[in-house]
Predict the 3D structure of the following.
Amino acid sequence: MKKIAFFSTQKYEKDFFEKANQQYLYELHFLEAHLNENTAVLCRDFSVICCFANDQLNKKVLDILWSQGVRLIALRSAGFNHVDLAHAKKLGFTVVRVPTYSPHAIAEHSVALILGLNRKIYRSYNRVRENDFSLHGLMGFDLSGRTVGVIGTGNIGSIFAKIMLGFNCKVIAFDIKPSVECQKLGIQYVDLEELYHSSDIISLHCPLTPQTVHLINASAVQQMKENVMLINTSRGAVVDTGAVIDGLKSKKIGYLGLDVYEEEADMFFEDLSDKIMQDDVFARLLTFPNVLITGHQGFFTKEAMVNIAETTLSNIAAFEKGKVQNNV
Ligand code: NAD
């Protein structure tokens, strides 16, 4: 029976994988450890491993994996920026992923961040629990009629754009490959400069690539409207956190909603409530009353979890039969 080692396993994932495994009967080994240079040795005896977004698949780790006999890396994520693909290819690995498990989940979470920030739900929740029914500081704005700029109109960005059209927003977009479907819906593609100048809300849905690392830097922030709302549910490093903190301090950025953070790898998905926060930049972000951060939970819906488990095991089964599907 084929053995699969799962890295960075969370309790809530096991049930979904065990259910999906009923038709394959693989031997699933759930490890809590993140994959890195120290833990890669745990792959001894496994030819297939399954990794998540914060596992490290750099050159050194890939070399260890290959020498231990691992041949298939099954990512249970859509993003693959954490894999040194060139080196993986050179060694001969097959790398597969789950390209679209639920684009609705992330698109809807982006909208949740917008609504939460705009109407300050997180503040009113706390106030009402303390019998404080005052409204000062809670005023929002009508979304209807506002301009929303979408960067990256792929699976997630296009669904997000459609939802925002439903709020009667004007939607403009930037993508290196504009979508005809989005254009048909009335979404206008503009260059980044115009998107920054015109948008009341900017939402990031592009992948992390060498071109998008720190796409939102000091110069981009400078070009944005006063009091802009910035939402990032894509990948943390698309945003230069220092530049955004400066933007918040100068009030250029009026609202910041993050589901991802560039240094999230050692924090997100863990309960660190007993620990001392070591990341001073993240700690600074938490001090702003107009910043709403969630810990990479955009993908986390029941539907998405079912799809992730089923597609991952189906990718592994295809590899076993000498076929490759959903390869990166
Ligand atoms: P996708 O590949 O379907 O769409 C990405 C779009 O970005 C494409 O249309 C592409 O042309 C465009 N793009 C690429 N480079 C660009 C650039 N330099 N500038 C502007 N646009 C560019 O991907 P998707 O499924 O829509 O996912 C988008 C991102 O969301 C993923 O890469 C991933 O990082 C992130 N994501 C986050 C979560 C979460 O839980 N928060 C979950 C899944 C995915």
Notes: The mean pLDDT is 96.
